């Protein structure tokens, strides 16, 4: 009979608990109604547990082993429940002695300390949730430790107490009682301790834990969220003060949890301003990971879905938010690395903020394609609610996003179609808008695909670049060639080739001449056929955008469909002050621009 825990037993007990939660994922999602009925508690907890399985290891002592578990949990934590659990394990580690063998008394102090840590991490602890069952389990262990019982006996007793607490959660929260369910997070923790207890009681080792299948919000949002975005950030630094950070974030939203250590903290908050949340956190440390879910969008997809076809693009496509919402266009954000921080394009980083920070920064940001798992999760959710899914990505010659999305889609469903638009910015935006209109007209999936394929060659973008500084700093242009170009005061017109590669269409020595060359190209296009629609996009230069709007309204004979600021991803390489016209022509099939 076990009267102590060592590294190996503790490690396998955690793996047993993790496996139990992973196996219970779907059932936990099905009963998730609090704090938001978004059906993802099981997925979030399973993701957290999978991180423990994949990243933790057996170390020389139980305390060191628990440290690897706590680090893995914090790094992989997702959602309210995942972060609360991670903080609980972190508190357990902090309160665990460094003895080679962990006695029952030592373990009791560890779990009690962990419960306190979990409570303190929450901005507004709510009874009837996971924290209630955590407390009940921990207190049962602490109360039984002095009665001469074995680990097995104490854990079996504590499991019964945890079950009683779980069954009582509907009496504490009306939303649970009204829906006839127990709290999903609370049941998730109970499921974990079931698996944990089973390993200790049977003295068996967990040799293998299967990889988690698709992590997807499979159930419904029953109520519209109070705040739009579920925002999570992993913050690293020195001397991080969780209490201070928590106090500073209270005004940004609700469901606030700040968990971690002095060197690593995970933040969870429901907010309408994820960009402001990240701007606040950037003053405390380095944001190595961000995740932002649009809960309002999820709710609309489930309860107010307009079409049979889901249309998806990436954040490089410049299209007004009002248009995106009108046609329920889904967006995959690209990532921006800046001064060690990870940002999400158009979500936690916009063009104005980018240029503002560049003024005082020697480092230059870089972009990267989205994470395959994150894209797969998003596509899985859409595949569950639409008959078809069509993804239109930025040019594959400019970004690895197309290949990333193809890989993610292949792992979800062979029926998801991913098309390389061979465009970017406003040109990509016009293609997406045109595809959305075809979907709204009730065209078949095959007809929409055919329309987009034909429209790609009918779409062009011409960018007026005031100087080559951004192209040099971003690596798009060599320093030597860029220096010569700047010395000659070259003002290039940048466009995309038929294959979607960046190309210089014209060279001018003044912005006035540069604009004339773009106008001449547009006039030549108009001499052959009509403009279906066009857009003006710019990089933090509304004055130049207004000049272009007036100029091309006169040339084309109608105003632009929209005028907007470009993606911060494009702004990084084009630079402040650039302006562009994107055009989609009405051409006969096979005719070239």
UniProtKB/TrEMBL annotation:
<keyword id="KW-0446">Lipid-binding</keyword>
<dbReference type="InterPro" id="IPR033470">
    <property type="entry name" value="FakA-like_C"/>
</dbReference>
<dbReference type="InterPro" id="IPR048394">
    <property type="entry name" value="FakA-like_M"/>
</dbReference>
<dbReference type="Pfam" id="PF02645">
    <property type="entry name" value="DegV"/>
</dbReference>
<dbReference type="GO" id="GO:0004371">
    <property type="term" value="F:glycerone kinase activity"/>
</dbReference>
<dbReference type="InterPro" id="IPR050270">
    <property type="entry name" value="DegV_domain_contain"/>
</dbReference>
<dbReference type="Pfam" id="PF02734">
    <property type="entry name" value="Dak2"/>
</dbReference>
<dbReference type="GO" id="GO:0008289">
    <property type="term" value="F:lipid binding"/>
</dbReference>
<dbReference type="InterPro" id="IPR036117">
    <property type="entry name" value="DhaL_dom_sf"/>
</dbReference>
<protein>
    <recommendedName>
        <fullName>DhaL domain-containing protein</fullName>
    </recommendedName>
</protein>
<dbReference type="Pfam" id="PF21645">
    <property type="entry name" value="FakA-like_M"/>
</dbReference>
<dbReference type="InterPro" id="IPR043168">
    <property type="entry name" value="DegV_C"/>
</dbReference>
<dbReference type="InterPro" id="IPR003797">
    <property type="entry name" value="DegV"/>
</dbReference>
<dbReference type="InterPro" id="IPR004007">
    <property type="entry name" value="DhaL_dom"/>
</dbReference>
<dbReference type="GO" id="GO:0006071">
    <property type="term" value="P:glycerol metabolic process"/>
</dbReference>
<feature type="domain" description="DhaL">
    <location>
        <begin position="8"/>
        <end position="198"/>
    </location>
</feature>
